[in-house]
Amino acid sequence: xxxxxxxxxxxxxxxxxxxxxxxxxxxxxxxxxxxxxxxxxxxxxxxxxxxxxxxxxxxxxxxxxxxxxxxxxxxxxxxxxxxxxxxxxxxxxxxxxxxxxxxxxxxxxxxxxxxxxxxxxxxxxxxxxxxxxxxxxxxxxxxxxxxxxxxxxxxxxxxxxxxxxxxxxxxxxxxxxxxxxxxxxxxxxxxxxxxxxxxxxxxxxxxxxxxxxxxxxxx
Length: 219
Prior knowledge:
The protein is 79% helix and 0% strand. By secondary structure, the protein is an all-alpha fold. It has one domain (7-218). The chain is globular. The relative contact order is 0.12.
């Protein structure tokens, strides 16, 4: 029997609930957009599981979802960079590169084969974006209490997830050959752990955005 409640879907649903509680009335439309993005994420993950169980090919679902993943994440980095520099050229060039490779992948391999090239390039972009944001943060003259900084924790989750994800995909064959249980390869546990780290950091960033930032300002 198909179970729609996996480690991935549960962590995504929890993160969506936290975003719903913390960001619905946020003054920034970019932060509010995370509620919509996480709703789409949950829907895509659950529907992808269902379609994969029914037809054994759910790649087209994730080929659609990757467009939302790229769009919303680029939007957030556009917002974060914009607090320090003119972010439009960097983000537009990165998004244009992703879309070019995405279209090429669809034409070359059809819509029913997952677009690994576009996803890999997008992941590398997000790693560089994250590192560049931390560089801008270090160069900034503004004092920031990192314990309560929502941007810091959002980027931390993003950096760890996409960096480790890219590394695992590069060495996927070797990692996949390691069996930790009779039914599960090492990669199974790695990708589950990465999802928990990503959505755990994002959830904490939403809490910081709603409550902890205000409390640190009062102190």
